[in-house]
Amino acid sequence: MPNETAWPIVIGMYVGHGLAIVSLIILIAVHLSSKVFRANEKSHVRCILAINFLLATAVFVGGVERREIMWVCQALAVLHHYFVLCLFGWLVVEGYVVYRHVCLSWEAHTVSFKSSLRVLGAAAQG
Predict the structure, then answer these.
(1) Rounded CA gap, 92 and 4, in Å?
(2) Which residues, including other chains, have CB under 8 Å from residue 53's CB and lie 6 or more apart?
(3) Which pLDDT tens digit goes with each residue over 63-91?
(4) CB contact set of 32 (below 8 Å; sequence gap of 6+)
(5) pLDDT of residue 112
(6) Contact at 8 Å (CB) between 37 and 30?
(7) In sequence order, which ranges of 35-102 are alpha helices (DSSP H)?
């Protein structure tokens, strides 16, 4: 695609990612400032998920045009892929949390929820 016709795509990319970054910052600020959210374990997972998504988006937006120096481009690509991989790991943790709270809410639990959440969280962050 020639550069003359790519400007609508580039503007759309920056506007979309900019809105995502602003929304994620607001989400993280609300989660960290509210006592109700800080006391809730489900909210911790969502906040960490939002932080990872914010970092992946910020690295992508900051590095999408950085192709002049090869090692900088490679370092930003590695960081972006690491944060995306962490995102998938935290999505697994979020799925586990939803499963525990929806499907197993009426049964007695033999394994502590916090200990299993710590193990999955450590695995998700790498």
Answers:
(1) 42
(2) 20, 24, 83, 87
(3) 877 778 888 888 888 999 999 999 998 89
(4) 38, 47
(5) 63
(6) yes
(7) 35-39, 41-63, 70-102
Asked whether the beta carbons of 90 and 45 are under 8 A apart, the reply is yes
Question: Given a cut of 50, is residue 125 above it in pLDDT?
Answer: yes
Lookup: tokens for 5: 């016709």
Residues 6+ apart with CB under 8 A from 7: none
The residue among 96, 61, 97 whose CA lies nearest residue 80 is 61
Residue type at 115? S
Tokens of 66: 């950085």
How long, in residues, is the chain? 126
Task: List the structure tokens of 93.
Answer: 């943790």
